[in-house]
Amino acid sequence: MGSNVIGRRAAMVAGTALATASLIRSREVHAAAKTLTVVLESEVTILDPHATTVNITRSFALHVFDTLFAMNEAGEIKPQMVDTWQSSADKLTWTFILRDGLKWHDGTPVTAADCVASLKRWGGRDALGKMLLADAVSLDAVDAKTFKLVLKETFPLLLDVLGKPNAPLPVMMPARLAATPGDQRIAEPIGSGPFRFVKSEWRPGNAMVLERNPDYVPRKEAPDFLAGGKNVKIDRLVLRVMPDQSTGANALMLGEIDYMQYLPSDMLPLLEKERGVKLMELRGLHQFQGNFRLNHAAPPFDNPAVRRVLWKLVDQDATLTAIGIPDRNRAKSCPSFWMCGTPLSTDAGSSGAKLDLAAAKAELKASGYKGEPVIILEVAGSISQTAARVLAQNMRDVGFTVEEQPRDWPTILARRAKKEGWSMFPVYSNGTDMFSPLTHFYVAASCNDFPGWSCDERIPKLLKAFTRAETLEDRKRIAAEIQVITYELVPSVMWGQFSIASGYRTDLKGLIQSSYPMFWAVDR
User: Fold this and answer.
1) Are 20 and 256 in contact (CB under 8 A)?
2) Cα 314 off chain centre by
3) 472 SS3 class
4) Residue 20, SS3?
């Protein structure tokens, strides 16, 4: 394998010359500026952080926008835009006061009215936000820096919701943008975050530029995951588009880029030996959970008996082996929707979820399946496409008709919004998105208008009970109850828990070690 990789590296040098020409010119023009050039998981195409759950939009939003609260490395929720807050003795009235010096990128001050409008817009799109607003008697600005939330019932996880790290993020934006209906996208990405979007230098398909926000006033605390002070030390952050992972890895080795979020597994041995490159390999919540999201709105997965057959067709170990994930970077056959190795981890309801092709064939025959094609939307060239191909072969072996449709990610996002024309798509998400029933995309969205349209009326009631639970033991018990129902409902099927190595140039200092790409602390 080594000689093939080295040969491919030499071939890629010429192949990347044209692709990096504009980058070189940009560096010449901005020679005086301290620039960091990165390749993220995909191109940023959706600039409205309230509009989607996709990770790349979240990565963009974390730099351009800000949140009222944020999570630190220990999973604790800390104030971010908020300076002080207090609750009444009965925990029904909450008052929040914003920090001094907060400004939008257009130079206008951040106000409490902006935050109220932002929360209402976000709350109309997010499952947890909907739950919170449903419990609200009122949410109003008191003065320029103060707003008040009055609740019907206590909501013990209120701050966890306001500081949640998973998309759609509860970011703040000017009230004029927050007035945009939730089913439409904002006209421009104006936030109050440590970087600002440079529209004049956006080249879709090639590069996006974010520049340091000179008006940003960071918190005094040290940076700690998504919390703490965001003291930007670079002038420009260039997000390059390189869909081919090998091209990106070669650019990293050549020093043409400074960071690559997802490195190709087959090039890790070569990258490990590269003196100018350092790898970032993560564990626990910084791992990913792979899922096949099912479409309950159309045949054949509108039939729950057909859906449940899939539990006997997914082989997590074989899938991660096919992808090329090293043993050290994976959890072995994790049955927990809430991530193995985390506080809520459980195997409740999973007893029948074991690879068994003979049993799956018999169950499919008894399910009433009529031979309808299972249309799998796959991100061409991605590791999730490999995961889909492993499952597709097992499905064909037991009698499913399978049609694989490779597409780019933006096309899949558009297709999945429709209730017909697809059956499933493979995807993987950060552990911080999946470690709780409140944030797990495919569970928390039960009975909401979310692509896949899965619904069991018991789940929303249990989710509400989860938010009322005062102790971890109570939350564990409720999470296990939800998982039992989820195994019956099958909103998605896990195909593995794993980490993907990131890589960066060794001259970078202060890069936060996380599966979230964050560049406000980095220097060189």
Assistant:
1) yes
2) 23
3) helix
4) helix
Distance CA 481, CA 62 (A): 33
Reduced to 3 states (helix: H, G, I; strand: E, B; else coil), residue 49 is: coil
Give bridge partners of residue 272 from the DSSP assignment. Answer: none
Q: Two tokens at 368?
A: 């009433």
Residue closest to 62 by CA, chosen among 34, 40, 35, 89: 40
* Rounded-to-integer distance, Cα 333 and Cα 316, Å: 5
Radius of gyration, alpha carbons of the chain: 23
Q: In the structure encoding, which two tokens stand for residue 359, read together?
A: 């049993």
pLDDT tens-digit series, residues 316-370: 999 999 998 888 888 889 999 999 988 999 999 999 999 999 999 999 999 999 9
Per the CB < 8 A criterion, the answer to whether 44 and 240 are in contact is no
Q: What is the DSSP letter of 284?
A: G
- 87-122 pLDDT, tens digit per residue, is 999 999 999 999 999 999 999 999 999 999 999 999
How much is the pLDDT for 13? 39
Residue ranges of alpha helices (H) inside 211-291 are 245-253, 268-273
**Does an H or E element contain 86, and which?**
strand 82-87
Among 158, 164, 166, 162, which Cα is nearest to 468's?
Answer: 158
Angle at 22 (CA atoms; ends 18, 28), nearest 5 degrees: 125
**In Å, what is the CA distance from 113 to each residue of 55, 94, 110?**
28, 16, 8
Mean pLDDT of the region 452-459: 97
Contact (CB, 8 A) for 43 and 204: yes
pTM: 0.79
Q: Is 172 helix (H, G, I), strand (E, B) or coil?
A: strand
